[in-house]
Amino acid sequence: MDAPWAQRILAVLICGTILSRILRAKKGREFFIRRIPGVDAVEESIGRATEMGKPILFLPGILGLDQMPTIAGLSVLKWVADRTVKMMVRLIVVFFEPSTASIITEIVRDAYRGASREEAFDERDIIFGSTREDAFASAIIGVVQREKIAAGFYFGSFGYESLLISENGFRVGAIQVAATTDVIQIPFFLCACDYVLIGEELYAASAYLTREPVQVGSLSGQDFGKFVLLLIIIIGSIAATIAALSAHPPNINPIEGILLK
Amino acid sequence: MSRWKRTLIIAATFAAGLVYVLAFLLPQEIGGGIDRHGMYAPWLAGNRLFYTTGVRAASNPLIEHDAGSEIVMLDLDRPSVRKNCFNASIFRSDDFRGAKRPVVFQLGGTYRMLYLGIGKDDRRRICLAESADGTTWHPFDKAVFETPSDANSGGPQWFTVFQSGTQFTLLYSQVDHNRRVLRSAESSDLIHWNDRGLFAALPQPRSILSAAQDAAGKLFFLIADADGVNRIYPGKVADGQIQLEQNTQMHSAVSSAVPGFSEIVDLVTTADQNRTLFLVVGGTPPPGGDGRLKTAVVQTQDGVTFTPIQNSQPDGSILPLGSPALSTGFDALSSSLSEIIPVIVAFGFALGLINVVRLHGSKLKQRGSSIYSVVTLVSAAAMFIAEWAFRQTEGNSPFWAKFEDFLFMNLLFPLGGTVFGLLSAYLISAAYRAFRIRNWEAAVLTIVAVAVLITQVPTMQIFGAAVSPSAQQKGAALDTTLHDVRTWILLVPNDAVQRAIGFGVFIGALAMAIRTWLSLDRLSASR
Hints:
The complex is a heterodimer. Chain A is of the alpha/beta class. Helix content of chain A is 59%, strand content 10%. Chain B has 3 domains: 29-321, Glycosyl hydrolase domain, family 43 (Tachylectin-2, Chain A, 5 Propeller), CATH 2.115.10.20; 339-433, no CATH class; 435-527, no CATH class. Chain B has 9 helices and 22 strands. The chains are: A alpha/beta, B alpha+beta. Chains A and B meet through helix 1, helix 3, helix 4, strand 3 and helix 5 of A and helix 4, helix 6 and helix 9 of B.
């Protein structure tokens, strides 16, 4: 079936705005980004790990490269890798999806190359856990307990292993920052991690950390998209209320109809 | 990475993304005849032919559309003029996704059309439209008959209406034990219906696909036989069971009248000047045919010989289907592109294997604490060999079957279960920390969590039972109220927050997808 026209128009409107904001940001327009304490904590954690001389664990989630949470996690990994190399902290990355292996390796290697320390890059710190969640969790628990990590950054999509990982991180006293779009896993991370980035903050983290115009502009475009959705929700709620209170059938919310037709 | 390689990757990413974007934005077909995707579920009222068609090609050959179906009307004297009877409206929910199977009667000076509406909830209901002239139709806001909830979860797939004097009998299909049976309802005005329950059934596995009635009141059934072939049988109904005439002469005669139909999927009759016309729906699946459903109108004088009516097509169908549309092709192209993903994943597994061997191999070289590496490599090799040998012997070797079973069922799954079981211990310690009341937000969280937890089971009833039977009854009533509170918490504030997060995630993913598509984000510094 063709997508409903209203959805197509909405997609063009939001995407167009995101692109225009990116272009404006590239031309030098500055957009405001609110403070995200969890992202600030990433930098603090790297500093703490430097002082303690212990490694940092980074997990890019359990999805493949075709999934946006993984791409967002890898954007953050790039910044973390650059910073850890600069601060001379060991970075361990455990991945779930084999298709991410080469790009993770390249991101970390590039960080070392950028600091002219390529010889210090140890490929054994890029670890393939497993494609089974239980085995993946076991592999990470092993790393956390053996290495006594100073900090753990979990940026991406996670399953039930979220609590197993973060509880172990808590037990070794690591500062943990988690960011996930999986609504079901957010409470588990909230219980065990020091900072949690909820939902879309995962996508905002990279922009906040790097302040790259493209990402900042895109973030501003996202805000416009949310504003449009909020407007539709408000109008839809009013229309639904009127329809429900209407004395005559069929009590249909026209906004819902327009969006689906 | 060299410049030309980078340019090639960016160009390939952009081109692939463009295909998906255009597949979403552009209509999949442009132009074409209104009934280019089929002509089925027909009804003949005088010289007006009503039928159903779909807005795009069906996913399988000889399948009726549900979503996107439309009712079309044409005058057999001017068959080139085909028009939609009515359009779906955003103000009608019961035929929001489609309308099919028109059944038209004239009552007094008004035409009434019953049809199967596919609602916003994807449930099928019997709807009604009225017309003063039989040309301009006005659908009712709500369906006139909804099958009982015990009859069909998704509503009937098929229905028809027989008229007997001023009474109308509606027959509709119900799936029962993997076969279709017929139920009935009655009405005198086509608006108000009374369900009469089971009308007719056949022993499994035979299904009743459709039923029709000639001018003399004789019944005909299209039956999906046990051998998978649909056949037409004359028959009658007694005590809810169909007694079919066990000769297939009629089926053979009708089939020979429609040589272009290798399969018949529906049968409708209409009485015309004391003769009965049979509307036969069928077609031929690929490779012999195009898989589209067509309608033929056949007549008989003696009940033995059937012939298509005048001006029918060589294949027996009454009219040629509409001219094909211009396909934009992006939908098919995007589906093909998606098939590349498993190939990339397969390569990814090889990378994972290399990573494991390299990591643990180097640890073994270094000696020291390499026992875990030995276990990992040996386990990986054992798993690989066991599965490979098991598949090579196709499970016929008792040794490999037992070995494979041991590794997976007795080792891997229990180990996985053990790790999962750790969750319960971790949950308690995590919950303890989460529910410590340190501020008012934590207090709200704790109260809500406790409320949801204790209302999961009939707590008050259990406590009441310990006191007295009357307290137990009061407890049960209180549990019902608490259950409503719990449902409200889960469905209103909880759902609202989850949806809010969902909206943010959706927009964030969209922005990230745009950046990735246009190669605005570069993850690797090797650019």
